[in-house]
């Protein structure tokens, strides 16, 4: 039996990609010297596409593949797949829902401890041989400090519990007070930043939250304060953060997300008091394996003529 032909838009979890290659005829877009010509060459045969929630699938991609039947997302697309044209064309869109609360909360707490205790700086200091002649710059204690959480959803609550376990006090800001939350609520973010030793940003990116962390908030956080962002890059005003860090108006930052991923401002790369990781909030082997299983289940079901287990829309 001829294997269904699918196009994979970018590299995904290697074991999942290997399984796809065993069961399907896979065209790897990222290996093409001329992606446009590559798509045109296979367009008459490709029946399925694999993408990620972050990359999504544009209207032009739909137009380029007239035989497309299914777009299978590794992850969950939030506004990144053109659902209108998918519906118009009768193309199935699937996702791989998972539970990343604990995973992202773990990373947020890790970033907070790492930047406050200068762990990455100390690692570089030691590796450079500087310990032979000098002492490393001391970090800040975590316990006894106040952690202000921006967005008390599931992830925010997970971070709050972890911060408490480290002996921190917790407060939070959001569009409204949560009646079942025992932590102090601030309706005014600037006021909370003034009281907090660190801000952890974990709210959704919406028109209202874009540039929510601006120069006023960073100045309220102050020269001894730290910022951690595990939400989305544009929740924090890029120019305001770069200026605050460059001028030591805040003590440091731990960032998992950026404004134009995967491109990171050169200014950040040169800063010692910043911890940078490449959007790994949900990047664990366990979550990747779970997403892979669900992605494969969706493709297998579709090409067997059955309903997909996890449709997105």
Question: Overview of this structure, please?
Answer:
The chain has 313 residues and is α/β, with parallel strands linked by helices. It has two domains: 113 residues, Rossmann fold (3-Layer(aba) Sandwich); 176 residues, Rossmann fold. The chain has a seven-stranded parallel β-sheet. Strands 2-1-3-4-5 form a five-stranded parallel β-sheet, with helices on both faces. Strand 9, helix 9 and strand 10 form a beta-alpha-beta unit. The radius of gyration is 22 Å and the shape is elongated.
Any idea of the CATH topology of the largest domain? Rossmann fold
What ranges have pLDDT less than 50 throughout 5 or more consecutive residues? none
Radius of gyration computed on alpha carbons? 22 Å
Number of helices: 12
Q: How many structurally independent domains?
A: 2
Order of the strands making up the biggest sheet:
8-7-6-9-10-11-12
What would the average pLDDT be, to the nearest integer? Answer: 96
Label the overall shape: elongated
- How far is it from the N-terminal to the C-terminal residue, by CA? 30 Å
The proportion of residues in beta strands is 15-25%
Total number of strands: 12
- Return the CATH architecture of the largest domain: 3-Layer(aba) Sandwich
Describe the largest sheet: 7 strands, parallel
CATH top level label of the largest domain: Alpha Beta
Q: From the helix content, strand content and strand pairing, which structural class follows?
A: alpha/beta
Tell me the name of the CATH homologous superfamily of the largest domain. Answer: NAD(P)-binding Rossmann-like Domain
How much helix, percentage-wise, in residues? 25-40%
């Amino acid at each position: 039996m001829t294997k269904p032909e699918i196009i994979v838009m970018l590299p995904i979890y290697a074991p999942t990609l290997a399984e796809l290659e065993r069961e399907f005829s896979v065209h790897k877009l990222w290996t093409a010297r001329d992606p446009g010509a590559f798509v045109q060459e296979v367009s008459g045969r490709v029946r399925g596409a694999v993408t990620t929630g972050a990359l999504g699938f544009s209207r032009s991609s739909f137009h380029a593949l007239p035989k497309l039947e299914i777009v299978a997302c590794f992850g969950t697309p939030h506004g990144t797949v053109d659902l209108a044209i998918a519906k118009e064309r009768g193309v199935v869109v699937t996702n791989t829902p998972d539970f990343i609360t604990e995973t992202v909360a773990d990373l947020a707490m890790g970033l907070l401890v790492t930047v406050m205790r200068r762990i990455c700086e100390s690692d570089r200091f030691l590796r450079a041989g500087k310990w032979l002649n000098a002492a490393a710059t001391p970090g800040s204690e975590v316990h006894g400090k106040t952690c202000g959480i921006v967005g008390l959803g599931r992830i925010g609550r997970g971070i709050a519990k972890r911060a408490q376990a480290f002996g921190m006090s917790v407060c939070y800001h959001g569009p409204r007070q949560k009646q079942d939350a025992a932590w102090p609520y601030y309706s005014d973010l600037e006021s909370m930043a003034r009281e907090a030793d660190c801000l952890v940003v974990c709210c959704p990116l919406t028109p209202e939250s874009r540039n929510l962390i601006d120069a006023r908030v960073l100045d309220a956080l102050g020269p001894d304060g730290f910022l951690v962002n595990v939400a989305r890059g544009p929740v924090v005003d890029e120019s305001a953060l770069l200026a605050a860090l460059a001028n030591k108006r805040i003590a440091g930052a731990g960032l998992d997300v950026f404004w134009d991923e995967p491109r990171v401002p050169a200014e950040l790369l040169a800063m010692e008091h910043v911890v940078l990781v490449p959007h790994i909030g949900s990047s664990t082997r366990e979550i990747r394996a779970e997403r892979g299983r669900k992605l494969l289940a969706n493709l297998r079901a579709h090409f067997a003529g059955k309903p997909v287990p996890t449709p997105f829309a």
